[in-house]
Write a structure and sequence with these properties.
By secondary structure, this protein is mainly β. It has one domain. The protein has a five-stranded antiparallel sheet, with helices on one face.
């Protein structure tokens, strides 16, 4: 799967801590990049370290998916994220 680039997220501005990204901020940005995601849940206080990964859950009309997201870079208070893996959950 090709890596999907997500928009940069703030670190020191509203919605972010100095060394962490708020889960709700990541959720909003992930939903904004893919209209098929009706609901996204990410962990709170995501590490804003380059190379860090975290897992979110996204719901679409076709089911629930596990998303693996990576922090690609951190520069001047912004973190750039990429969606590195998407897997459909089987129930």
């Amino acid at each position: 799967m090709r890596r999907a680039s997500l928009v940069a997220l703030c670190l020191a501005a509203a919605g972010c801590g100095a060394a962490n990204i708020k889960g709700s901020t990541a959720e909003q940005q992930i939903k904004a990049t893919n209209g098929a995601f009706k609901k996204v849940d990410c962990p709170d206080n995501i590490s804003a370290s380059q190379g860090a990964t975290f897992t979110c859950t996204a719901k679409t009309a076709k089911g629930t998916f596990t998303l693996t997201v990576q922090v690609d870079s951190v520069d001047n208070g912004n973190a750039r994220l990429s969606l590195v893996k998407t897997a459909k959950q089987v129930h």
